[in-house]
Amino acid sequence: MKIVSSIEELRDQLRGQLRTAFVPTMGNLHEGHLSLMRLARKHGDPVVASIFVNRLQFAPGEDFEKYPRTFHADVEKLEKEGVYVLFAPTEKDMYPEPQEYRVQPPDGLGNMLEGEFRPGFFTGVSTIVMKLFSCVQPRVAVFGKKDYQQLMIVRNMARQFALPTEIIGAETYRAEDGLALSSRNSYLSADERAEAPALFQTLNQVATEMRAGHQDIFLLEQQAMASLAARSWKPDYVSIRRRVDLQPPAAGDLAQGEALVVLAAAKLGATRLIDNLEI
Ligand code: PAF
User: Where does (R)-pantoate bind (predicted)?
Assistant: First the structure.
């Protein structure tokens, strides 16, 4: 595996490649990331990964400084997955001057759910993803469904800017107890780790109620938030949305069998976890 940090070296390595499959990451790689690499391999060749902790998507006071950085272990894992090039730019490589041009997702999609609780987050994500795409010029790029809203925003961005990159969504990789793998799980204490699967269990309860014909969405959301709060979580939201645009379903949508997803974000101790489940 070639490890490159400058955009020029990356372009040299990828010159003439027309079927590149790309997986952008912020490092601290776990099985979830590696499953994205394997999916990428099925859709293109060569597979290119990036590791870059993108300051633009962290608000002041968030965990940019303490975000786990495990470069050497990450390199070993990517070598084993047969990744062809790892692009690991420094901040100076990526932002040699202040990034004044930014990609702003539409208000409706960018400011709801995660966007409401993390203002500026999706502008930071969209900007770095656009810039990484410009560097790597992939034919396909793989994003995990765990970051459901991010996947939708990137997909819409690629479509609206007519980017020549197909966006592929990968199923969420879970531990045996159901917890979605995330780099931020490493912040959890042993007790918190034992409690953490309750987030996915709560999503499953909501899905079960809906499948049983329960249609009062507001009540289901409130009950789910209350049950998390009773277990010492601090929920930001539990929200049932249409899969197609992440808008709240209208009354007619339920009758017509509109495809839905339930999304949640909640703090356990100092760690904020997100998850979702397609219903
Ligand atoms: O999902 C992530 O790890 C990040 O948001 C991404 C897509 C690599 C952009 O920094």
Answer: 57, 150
